[in-house]
Design goal:
This protein has 596 residues and is α/β, with parallel strands linked by helices. 48% of the residues lie in helices and 17% in strands. The strands form 5 sheets. Strands 2-1-3-4-5-12 form a 6-stranded parallel sheet, sandwiched between helices.
Length: 596
Amino acid sequence: MLALIAAVAFGGSAFAERILILYENESTQPATMEIAQGITRRLVEDKRHVELYSEYLDLVRFGSDADRQRLIEYLRVKYTGRPLDALLTVGPSALRFALAERDLFAPGVPIVFGAVRGFPKDVPMPPDATGVLSRFDVKGTLELARRLQPDAKRATILTGSAPFDRSWKETARTLLGEHYAGFDIDYLDGLSLDGFKAKATALPADSVLLILTVFADAEGVSYIPRDAASRIATTSGAPVYSVYSSYFEGTVLAGHVGTFTAIGAEMAALALRLFDGGGTAPPATQKEVALIDWRQVVSRGIARDRIPEDAEILHYKPTAWEQFRLPIILGLSVIAAQALSIAALILQNQRNRRLEDVVSTQRLELAHMSRHSQVSQLSGTLAHELTQPLTSILANAEAGRKIARAGNADLGEIGEIFDDIVADNKRAGEVIAQLRSMMRKGDFSVERIDLNDAMRSTVALINAEMVARRTQVSMSPNAEPLPVQANMVQLQQVILNLILNAADAMAELPPKQRKIEIATRLGENGARQLTVSDAGPGIAPDQMAEVFKPFVSTKDNGLGLGLAISRSLVEARGGKLVFDGMATRGARAVVTLPAG
């Protein structure tokens, strides 16, 4: 039952495949840890039940024949009776060891190698061996350095004194020679770590330093290559390059590399292929990329446009534009649209203001024309209003002259004559002043006016006209003052227009029936109201709104502008002018104004 549970949990196989991984270095090497991580991650992704065994040969530090024999015996004893399904080797020394000694501890077990540049020349490769070849591309790294530093003339290749370090120097010399990619090549080795640091410090900024490996220096001190490279690169006057991805910790500028994690993942994939019966695949060459540390790009002042487009950039902090390009574009588009909308609204507002000014001017012109028409209608009345005081003044003046010539003048009587003359003169002056106001053009100031006073002064102005038309006008003022914010002349013009319209509506009635009632009162919410009622035929309900339209008139010779102008004058002061649909007889016009 436990076996069946394990089979379900680990992908359906009741028996686990066993993999032995031989690392040529110790477990603390960064490259070793990254490859182990890549192997484990790939196996976990496959959800396969695999037993992993890891051995760290540390052949760089323990490479004598006696060490080798003890290691072989240890592996033979440990894995006898524990059959293996795959043998993974990491590094060239581990591969060479497995090829030479496999039959002693893992006979017939297929080999999957990684982290090697090529096949060993002194040991034949069996057909059951495959793996991942890494170029650790020295040439590609110097070509990348040429692109990043186009003005650099010299390149220094630094290696340590361990056997692996010396083999790296020979490989580099074979690949590069004395000149490559426009660089004069120098080879730096045979020094202590302090010696390397001193030499690196003296390098000019317009040169290149390529650090390969330093497993040991000339004094025999062993190092983890990444740590040695970091300590040297920290003091370097020249930008530092590497062929190992594990060196990129902030001190290396760039390199043409393949990651050790990817090597481990590819090795695990080849092992899984063997388990699935896919056989031994031909060795694969690891994919490499231009790896660049952005911190060093900034520190060394490398131009951004020199970085290859396909490069992988470490520790790069994208700009706000790069991170949020689409939202920024959309935001700017919205802002631009809003700006255009605001500009359009401003232009429209300016246009509306100009139109309002034009309409206001035209309204004032029409109001003036209407007043002119009203004055023309009242010309006989106004002439009568002027004739009466002038005639009285003339009569009083002649009477005073006769009394003065008589010789026995009564001073009291003469004083009364002069009082009459003054009163008649004031009356004539008021008529003339009112006439001038009615004829004046232009805008009018707004002031606080009592609606009762406006009613009384208008009725006084038109009284003679109503007498001539044999029409009775009665007033019902409110008991309390009704202040409004208006212009007296314009308000009189409205009242005058309503009175004349009422009189015209009753022209066909007998004189005794011609009655106009004008009243002021306090309306709802404190509004002030003035009503003008007549006894005429009234207005049909469907015509009560039509009569306020321009050029709509019930008179044969009317222009149809009086009511339209009157309503516009009232509305300009925040009020309303309507006909009361509830009137039982005739028509009743209602002027409503806000409290002033």
